[in-house]
Write a sequence for this structure.
């Protein structure tokens, strides 16, 4: 008796719940549920009627729009800088040196009736030298070449050549100039030195050079 009293509230609660469910079925038009009016009838019909599943209404899930990742602009670590082009400066033309005369010698050779004149010169730049000789006394014959540093004055004491005298007066001049090849193939001279010997056919050394 005590057990039945304790289970009575649970039975009534279950019956009420079943009754509510079947009333809902009746409202939906279920034929078996329309005949249920008491908890006993509800228990009888519940065993024959399978509960209908109410399809779940799909709920639209909020789909977050894809977010675009920020575009990274490539940057150059080394920023190119404008390079200033400096035109090459004109190479200055090195100064050229004049020939240097170190000696002048006059030698008389009686057997040849001649006096020989020799000039010794050089060029600091290593250029070739050219010689131009001249004699102020027209007697006899004065022999020289441009490439030779020696000149010869032939002066025999014979009629038609030179008068009979111990020393024939005269001024012997030699111009020494350096010659080099310029761009384009032309031959140019950087300068000259002029030496003057005033003792005529007499032997001796030294000359005035400038």
């Amino acid at each position: 008796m005590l057990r039945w009293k304790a289970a009575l509230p649970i039975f009534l609660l279950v019956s009420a719940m079943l009754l509510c469910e079947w009333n809902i079925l009746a409202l939906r038009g279920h034929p078996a549920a329309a005949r249920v009016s008491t908890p006993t009838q509800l228990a009888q019909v519940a065993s024959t009627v399978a509960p209908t599943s109410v399809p779940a209404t799909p709920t639209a899930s909020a789909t977050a729009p894809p977010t675009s990742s920020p575009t990274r602009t490539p940057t150059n670590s080394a920023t190119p800088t404008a390079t200033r082009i400096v035109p090459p400066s004109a190479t200055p033309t090195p100064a050229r040196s004049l020939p240097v005369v170190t000696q002048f010698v006059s030698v008389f050779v009686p057997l040849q009736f001649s006096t020989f004149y020799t000039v010794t010169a050089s060029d600091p730049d290593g250029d070739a030298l050219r010689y131009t000789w001249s004699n102020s006394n027209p007697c006899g014959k004065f022999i020289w070449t441009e490439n030779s540093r020696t000149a010869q004055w032939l002066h025999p004491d014979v009629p038609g050549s030179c008068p009979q005298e111990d020393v024939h007066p005269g001024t012997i001049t030699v111009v020494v100039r350096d010659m080099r090849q310029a761009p384009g193939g032309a031959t140019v001279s950087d300068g000259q030195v002029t030496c003057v010997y005033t003792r005529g056919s007499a032997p001796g050394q030294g000359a005035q050079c400038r």
Observations:
- The chain has a mean pLDDT of 78.
- The beta strands are 100-109, 114-122, 128-135, 141-143, 150-154, 172-181, 187-188, 192-197, 204-205, 208-209.
- The radius of gyration is 70 Å.
- The chain has two domains: 2-46, 100-209.
